[in-house]
Design brief:
Rhopdopsin 7-helix transmembrane proteins; 2 strands; two-stranded antiparallel sheet; flat; mainly alpha
Length: 356
């Protein structure tokens, strides 16, 4: 059972890491989604470390960091739910969420929440939590339910949120089983692997509903991947050359590693841009922002009177902004009565259409 648990946690780590790289390509709009997945990586990483630690002192340090990251899973999930659902909540809930997360995460490093580590079934070490750990359960249950309600309400306005909602339900179902041993419940975290399924739902929602154009997304991911690989290989190759030249002095390696680390940030940007240009030269598709595209449509199309001009404007817009050539399209319009009630409902629906 220990091997299965470690494999499932490592799978969670890898899938969340890949999804984090995915979100890096989407810009600042998805910063909380990115932070949420990075925190899941931290949680998984220190989960593995305290389960495989050789002494209780080391295991306790890893367990406390793991418990602190668990708190931020709840905090970031609620922030993601607000942003994805696009539903405003009262500021008091955001303040409570932030203050609770900061307070609980700090307390995880004190005996108030975690008194140490203890053995549990085949696990040598798990966190030995106190009665005050119940404060975390209360905090998590409240904001977990609230966040899912926000996502559920937003489904009727934004269809892709259905997949994110299902993914979060499955993920929390699996993640909560890791807390059962903390409650002295004789049960293994056998559903922990479900956290990986969350990444599948979210990735499908993002790609299927064209938040970012698929081919461009693949280009961005490949560029970052190859850039990181080249930087790692060049670093290891340089160390190998130093060893061959018998320059393997420890102080020299530390100085070289620091210099390489600082310079690698600039090299990473240069390599990404270079790979972007190489990959983009192989495709006619272009990256584009939805908001800019809508702004351009609203600005340019207001003065269009003839349908032939509308076709030319549309053809030029899609060709210049998206790199796609169209030959034909059709136009449909809404019919509604002239009374005020129906007119208001039409405007509301149309505005919602533009927004999403």
């Amino acid at each position: 059972m220990l091997t299965f648990t470690l494999v499932s946690i490592f799978t969670n780590f890898v899938t969340c890491l890949l999804l984090s790289i995915f979100f890096l390509t989407l810009g600042k709009k998805y910063i909380y989604f990115l932070l949420f997945n990075i925190n899941l990586c931290i949680w998984s990483f220190f989960y593995i470390l305290y389960l495989t630690a050789s002494c209780p002192e080391t295991a306790e340090i890893y367990a406390r960091i793991n418990c602190a990251s668990i708190v931020f899973i709840t905090f970031l999930f609620f922030r993601v739910a607000i942003i994805v659902s696009n539903i405003k909540v009262k500021p008091i809930f955001n303040r409570i969420n932030l203050l609770s997360a900061l307070s609980l995460s700090i307390l995880m490093f004190t005996p108030i929440m975690v008194s140490g580590v203890k053995p549990f079934f085949v696990f040598k070490f798990i966190p030995d939590v106190t009665i005050f750990y119940s404060l975390y359960y209360i905090y998590t249950i409240f904001f977990m339910i609230y966040g899912h309600l926000l996502l559920y309400k937003s489904i009727k306005f934004n269809y892709k949120n259905k997949f994110i909602f299902y993914g979060c339900i499955v993920s929390w179902l699996g993640g909560l089983t890791t807390l059962l041993p903390y409650l002295s419940i004789p049960s293994y975290p056998f559903l922990n692997i479900l956290v990986s399924i969350y990444t599948t739902f979210v990735t499908y929602a993002l790609i299927k509903h064209r938040i970012f154009e698929n081919s461009i997304l693949i280009i961005k991911i490949l560029s970052k991947f190859f850039s990181i690989i080249i930087l790692i290989i060049s670093y290891l190759f340089s160390l190998h050359i130093f060893h061959l030249l018998k320059l393997n002095n420890q102080n020299f390696e530390i100085i070289f590693s620091l210099i390489y680390l600082v310079s690698s940030f600039e090299l990473y940007i240069i390599l990404c841009n270079k790979f972007d240009s190489i990959f983009e030269s192989k495709t006619t598709l272009r990256s584009y922002e939805k908001e800019n595209l809508r702004y351009y449509i609203n600005k340019k199309f207001l003065d269009v009177i003839k349908l032939s001009n509308l076709f030319n404007h549309t053809k030029y817009l899609i060709k210049s902004k998206m790199g796609i050539t169209i030959n034909s399209f059709y136009i449909s319009n809404y019919l509604y009565e002239s009374d005020n009630s129906n007119k208001k409902s039409f405007i509301k629906y149309y505005g919602h259409d533009i927004k999403n």
